[in-house]
């Protein structure tokens, strides 16, 4: 039986990947960071919490990384743990660099010393490219990140390539463009919108505050993308691949799909706020998945509208069940919408 170690198993991708690998008959281990409040709702929500083995570990701590690999003896490691919210990286650039940059180095060093035969997948991101002005992005596109998050991920990307070349490790980068699902975190704009639309429909809130409505993204489906991760490690040779849909949509498209699903007009409820803009924004991201399609056979099947409508339906059902008094694993019921958060002011010369 193959063994897989997933870092960041409590996140969206980690939870879906764990479910996928369990179906593939893997023995799945997952690392999680100890906090005062456990965050296992996604694993519980997907019905797999009792099917995985959890290991407390911190990607900032080399000793715990080394220990997690030594005791699990994995055939494959999927490094998904990260500070993955771009806006937060402007608020906390040093922490983001430690978490998203140097942690990858720590894992590669541990693999090199413990067992160089372990296959390693690094969760890279389209944010390493920065704003490409509507240019379709592939593996050869110049990388010019526009955020501390993108810069930290670019460090990890190159570290993987260096260790692959220098130490002959089977280490790969999956350069994933945005990918969404009903278990996406509420800090991300897609889920923020679908959850707010459901709340507005029930009369629980009256307005939704957003930043730049003209930004365009290549949005895919998270459940499909985790299969792409797995396929990358099954390829005969280690390589780097873009995972994307090849189609781009704006925040306004996201609002149209979300609110119209519930018979609402988003223009009546959405307020733009300058404080929610990024210090340096990426206006357009559009991916080209030709390489992974041609070499591995992975390609997207679910379109953006289908994904968003599924998210809206699920958030609407959750709030309906919540109002009926039903208890179930979920994030939004413990996520106040009236928090007074002070953001850094964006000053541009």
Index terms:
alpha/beta, 7-stranded parallel β-sheet, single chain, Rossmann fold, two-stranded parallel sheet, globular
What does this structure look like?
The protein has 349 residues and is α/β, with parallel strands linked by helices. 40% of the residues lie in helices and 14% in strands. It is built from eleven helices and 13 strands. The strands form four sheets. It has a seven-stranded parallel β-sheet with strand order 3-2-1-4-5-6-11, sandwiched between helices. The protein has a two-stranded parallel sheet with strand order 7-10. Helix 7 runs parallel beside helix 9 and helix 9 crosses helix 11. The N and C termini lie far apart (58 Å).
- The share of residues in helices is 25-40%
> For the record, what CATH class of the domain at 3-179 and 220-243 applies?
Alpha Beta
CATH architecture of the domain at 3-179 and 220-243: 3-Layer(aba) Sandwich
Sheet with the most strands, sense and barrel status: 7 strands, parallel
Q: End-to-end span in angstroms?
A: 58 Å
CATH topology title of the domain at 3-179 and 220-243? Rossmann fold
SS element count, helices: 11
């Amino acid at each position: 039986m193959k063994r897989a170690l997933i870092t960041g198993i409590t996140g969206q991708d980690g939870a879906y990947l764990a479910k996928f690998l369990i179906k593939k008959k893997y023995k799945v281990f997952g690392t999680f960071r100890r906090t005062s409040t456990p965050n296992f709702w996604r694993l519980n929500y997907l019905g797999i919490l009792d099917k995985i083995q959890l290991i407390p570990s911190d990607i900032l701590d080399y000793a715990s990384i080394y220990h997690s690999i030594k005791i699990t003896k994995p055939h494959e490691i999927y490094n998904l743990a990260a500070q993955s919210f771009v806006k937060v990286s402007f608020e906390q650039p040093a922490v983001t660099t430690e978490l998203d940059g140097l942690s990858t180095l720590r894992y590669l060093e541990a693999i090199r010393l413990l067992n160089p035969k372990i296959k390693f997948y690094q969760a890279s991101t389209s944010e390493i490219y920065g704003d490409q002005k509507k240019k379709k992005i592939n593996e050869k596109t110049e990388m010019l990140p526009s955020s501390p998050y993108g810069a930290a991920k670019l460090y990890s990307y190159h570290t993987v390539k260096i260790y692959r070349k220098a130490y002959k490790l089977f280490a790969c980068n999956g350069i994933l463009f945005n990918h969404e699902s009903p278990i996406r975190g509420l800090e991300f704009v897609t889920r923020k919108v679908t959850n707010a639309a459901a709340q507005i429909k029930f009369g629980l809130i009256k307005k939704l505050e957003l930043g730049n409505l003209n930004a365009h993204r290549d949005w895919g489906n998270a459940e499909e993308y985790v299969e792409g991760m797995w396929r990358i490690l099954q390829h005969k040779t280690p390589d780097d691949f873009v995972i994307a849909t090849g189609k781009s949509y704006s925040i306004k498209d996201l609002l149209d799909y979300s609110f119209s699903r519930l018979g609402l007009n988003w223009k009546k409820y959405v307020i733009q706020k300058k404080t929610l803009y990024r210090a340096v924004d990426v206006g357009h991201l559009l991916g080209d998945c030709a390489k992974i399609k041609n070499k591995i056979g992975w390609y997207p099947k679910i379109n953006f509208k289908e994904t968003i409508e599924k998210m809206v339906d699920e958030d609407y059902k959750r709030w309906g069940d919540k109002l009926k008094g039903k208890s179930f694993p979920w994030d939004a019921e413990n996520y106040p919408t009236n928090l007074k958060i002070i953001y850094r002011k964006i000053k541009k010369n």
